Each structure stands twice: as C-alpha cells, then as structure tokens.
Amino acid sequence: MTATMTTRQAEAWLEQRQFFTIKLGLDTTRALLDELGNLQDRLRIVHIAGTNGKGSVGATLQAILAAAGLRAGFYSSPHLIDVRERFRINDALMPAADFARLTARLAALIGTRFEPTYFECTTLLALLWFAEQRADAVILETGMGGRLDATNVVLPLLAIITDISRDHEQYLGSTLTAIAGEKAGIVKSGVPTVFSGRAAEALPVIEARCQQLESPLFVFGRDFSAQATGDSTFTYQAVTGAVHADLPLPLRGDHQVVNTALALAALDVLAPIFPVAAEAVATGLRQVRWPGRMELIPVRHRKKTVRVLLDGAHNEAGVAALVQTLRTDYADCRLLLIWGNMADKHMGEPLFDLLTLAAAIILTRTESPRFAAPETLFAGLPPEFRAKTRCCETVDQALAIVLEQAKPDDLICVAGSLYLVGRARHLLSGGLDG
User: Fold this and answer.
1) For residues 187 and 193, what is the distance between their CA atoms, to the nearest angstrom?
2) Are residues 215 and 303 in the same domain?
3) 3-state class (DSSP) for residue 144
4) Of the candidates 21, 30, 103, 217, which lies 20 to 30 Å from 228 by C-alpha distance?
5) Computed from CA positions of residues 319, 325, 331, 337, in that sequence, does the dihedral angle turn out positive or negative?
C-alpha cells in the first residue's frame, strides 16, 4: 500500500529533487511511464516548445478549448508561487489532496532505483493527473529545449514551436541554428507542426526537420497571419484563408499578436478533432489570463493607487519585448524599475535599454541560491546607471521603498526572473489565482 503524504511533505519531497538540477534525456521518464502503463498514450496532446511565448500560447489554447466546453489540461513551468500552478484543468489548479496523493504514489514508485529531476517528477505528475481526470485535451509545455526535454516522451496531435532566441546556451548551443535543432526535436513523423518562423536562422532548420519527418508545416506570415487593429483587438487570417476581424487581443505586448495567432492556427489544424465555434473563440480570448507576463495590476498604498507592471522577462528576447511595450504604451510615465535575474542569465543590450528608460532602479533577489546578488549586478553596471540604482536584499524591502516613492502617474515595473515576479505578485495581490 502506498504511503500517504501531506501537501507540505509532497512539496518537500519534490524540492529534494532539485539537488539533481538539470538533466537532459528521456530514459528516466520513459522507464517510469512504462511502469505506469504508458498512460500518456491515452491523452490527446498539443506539445509546445520555443524560447519565449510557450506559456502565452498554451494559456490561450486552454481558454478557448474550455470556452468550447472541453476539459483542457495545461502543464506549464515555472510556477510563480505554488507548484500546483503547473497543473491546471480549465480554471482550476490541481487540488492539494490530488497533489499530495499522486506525489506519494510517484515517490513510492521511484524509491531508490531512480534519481529523477524536479522537472521529470512534475512532468510525470501532470501526465498522471490528466490521465486520471480524463482530460479531453492536454497542452504540454516543454521546460527547456525539446529533443531531450522530459516532456518529449509523447506522441502529440500537434506540435507548436514559438519564437526561438538565445537562452540556456550552455545546454542548447550558442547559435540560433543549434537551438532550433533542439526545439525541432518535438516534431514527430506525420504530426502537423505550427511555427512562428520569425527567426531567419531557425526557419530552415524547422523546415528541414518537418520535411524529413513528413510533418505538415504551418508558418506564421506564410500560411496564416495576424495584425493588431487597436489597443486590444486584432485581425487573424486563418490557415484556411478565412479572415476574422476585431478579435479580442487578450495579453499585452505586440509579440502577443503572434502568440495568439499560433494558438488560433493550432485550432485550425485541429478542427476535425476539436471543433470550436467562432463564439467560443471570442469568449475564450476574452478569458485568457497569464499572470506575471506583462500583467498590469493597480495597487493601493497610503491613500494612493499606483500601477505595477509585472513581467518575467528572463532572457534577452523577453527584455526586448518588455522595452518595446514600455516605449509604446508607457512612454509618458516615469518608470520605477525593480529588477533581479538568475546568475547564469545574460541579457545583453536589451537590459541596458531597459535601464535607460528607468528613472530609478532597485536591484534585488529572491532566496534562491541561483539568483545573482544585487551587489554583483550593481558592480557590472556602467557608471551612468549607478547614480539612479540601489540594492535591496529582499523583494519585500524593494517594494516597500518603491511604493513610497511612486506617484499615481508613475509606473512601477517588476521584471527579470519569474520567481522574483511571483514573489512580488504574492505580496501585492495576496497570493495565488485559482
């Protein structure tokens, strides 16, 4: 009989898996799924890889499928506050009781025979729960790469590859061609692929992989397209050629036009399996929520209301997108920036563009040992930025300072690592959605 766990015991057991850090490869996940009866084969899966935009595309797909009356599962990473954020069916997180029970089952199965990573364990938990709950559709987001990512043990109905840029170069390669080769690993024989196609170096790699595996390929700008038509609407030209005007644009940032189009193109391709009416598309788009990504929240502080923009811009392309949004939508605001990033991240020129926009900067960190120390970040700044920059050891202190300084017309931006954004969001809004 499987031993039981409390939620805290389950979280602690999972945290211990962090000691094995990143381990690329499929052997452990495949071996454990074999012992679980290969339950992933019972699921109808959409598999998503890419450097940026995976979560936005997945959240959009889930919202539309849910609006169409389906029970749509979504496995994403990382989480902001609670590990259960990684596992959703429609608007609901995995219940705490299910999380504890399934983690106990997984721990008993693993015993001392395997040393799976945290991500391998959460991937198995997701597949276990979605199979148990008989989800109608499952959206599975890769953690890193694709070819050797723990999620790449499935045969999906469709693969989606979002924008490709430089990140995790020590694991995926230092060129866009090499990184695209890793992302292309989720393409399967005869299974359609939808691709953003916006990186010129990446497109030939994806095209060659799809041709080799006879995977029908649909590329943004060639086989389907979209264009913003206002602050919160866009026009979409479908894979079929049909044009849909004045659709709600659910998420902030010009890059979200492409991400939303990828989700809609996926639905075009999957229409024989998951038919979705136009009304459900519009309803679903209005209901998309993706916390911590270009998320604007009002915060009441000492009889004043200030605006806070939260964005997990954790790599060079993400920071560039944030800078574009700030220049386009908030050009008239005084910007107060709270920033922190992992020590292994290199943001390049976009970070200096962001720092240039800020009137004041606070560098901070979470408790993770992987975080860059604020003093280290400060030491690496050009002299012209140091006069407007200070360091805080905790997110709590940074928020307290900036909320005192902010005026109602200012914009506070908290950006960098998603764990930093998650901590700030928890403090500002009282915790977890769902």
Assistant:
1) 7
2) no
3) coil
4) 217
5) negative
- CA atoms of 131 and 303, how far apart (whole Å): 49
Instruction: State how far the Cα of 393 lies from the Cα of 73, in Å rounded to an integer.
Output: 37
In whole angstroms, what separates CA 355 from the centre of its chain? 24
Which pLDDT score is estimated for 430? Answer: 58
Q: Is residue 316 part of a domain?
A: yes
Helix or strand or coil: residue 213? coil
Q: What is the pLDDT of residues 283-325, one digit of tens each?
A: 999 999 999 999 999 999 988 999 999 999 878 888 999 999 9
The reply to whether the predicted model has a pTM over 0.85 is: yes
What phi and psi, each to the nearest 5 degrees, are found at residue 412?
-90, 130
235 and 320 co-located in one domain: no
Q: Give the strand pairing for 193-195 and 335-340.
A: unpaired
Pairing assessment for the beta strands 137-141 and 158-161 based on DSSP bridges: unpaired
| 17-31, 73-87, 124-138: the lowest-pLDDT one | 17-31
User: 224-248, pLDDT tens digit by residue?
Assistant: 999 999 879 999 999 999 999 999 9
- The enclosing domain of 315 has a CATH number of 3.90.190.20
Q: Is the CB of residue 337 less than 8 Å from the CB of residue 361? A: yes
